[in-house]
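Methods — Computational structure assignment.
A single polypeptide chain was analysed. Its primary sequence is given first, followed by the predicted tertiary structure written as structure tokens.
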Amino acid sequence: MKRRNKVIVVMSVLVCVFAVGFGALALTAADRIRAKFKRVQAAVTILGRKQIALNGVVQQITEFKKTLDKGDAVNAEKLLDQILARKEVVSIAAEISREPAASNRFNPPIQASDEPIDNTFSVPRPTEIQGYSDHMMEPCITLDGKYLMFNNSNEPGAKTHIHLCQRLDTNIFKYIGELPGTVSDSKDMAPSVDNAGNLYYTCLKSYDRDLKSLYVGKLKDESVTGVQEVSGDISPKVQTWINMDCCISADGKTLVVSRARFDFGSIQPAESDLQMFVKGENGFALDPQSISVLKAVNSPALEYAPSLSADQLELYFTRAQRDLEGRLLMRILVSKRDKVSSPFGPPSVLGVIQGFVEAPTLPALNHELFFHKRDAEDGKFKIYRCERTR
């Protein structure tokens, strides 16, 4: 699965460097270190899944990487031995032996034909962005429908930032440029905005230090000011977990977040579910009803890229999963409810939206829906639009 690379956890980078470092080692030493490293990889995956703190382990892995880069196999192996001797690692030794390879652990397969279909929207058409021809991902249409935001490619190595366009016609936008105030030295992406112009988005500039990835600023006059971390208790407490993206309700009081876990060495999430946070005096906190409200939405598959309708009666999101033949299914679904105080019902797939599709977004009137899709011919991600027909 080629997932939107929201985060490249430090362990992912270490695996790549580690694989390259074997060239200068004798075969027996390389095999021995590789076997121990796989046990360390499994241990980090299990500890992360159990949400057990990884700070000490990650520091030792970082030191291991530096030592291996110097060609010091003896001390590199000693560092792996030290990690495997840690109390928290020894306590899960039996689980480490049973842990399957990451490639075998992707969420359970489904029969796609079993999913209900929602035919609310018309056949999508690609939008025209005048003055821009690169990748367009994770769109956000402002609630008044006048502006469209998106980020360019979020592949590793890409300089990923948020871009702004002004609407000229139903399906035509004029490219303005990178959104001032949101550009950092890291990846900036997946914007969402409320009625008051508060722009929420994902930024990885401090994640390695404090596990925070969601920021907010004030969108006004085609720029953003006062950017700061989203206040409250919303960030994960354990490395390998991240708030991957979010959407803010129109009234600014509810934040829906996709909380994801990455296996050691992977740039694809092993888990991702939606969580709901509510705003209080001290910022956002997990809604006590989050689990029950989203019970029908979350599944063993990956749920992410949420978008709430302005009245909060419809929740759109992306789900990724394999079918029974092993093919990757990327779908945009909608879950509905009769009133804001009720849980969301079982979701349905938007039947006219097919292919490698993600990241739905709607304006306040709910009369149209935007999303991104990978073009089958040139491989670029483009933004598509469809209209509500009923």
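Note: The chain is about 20% helix and 35% strand.
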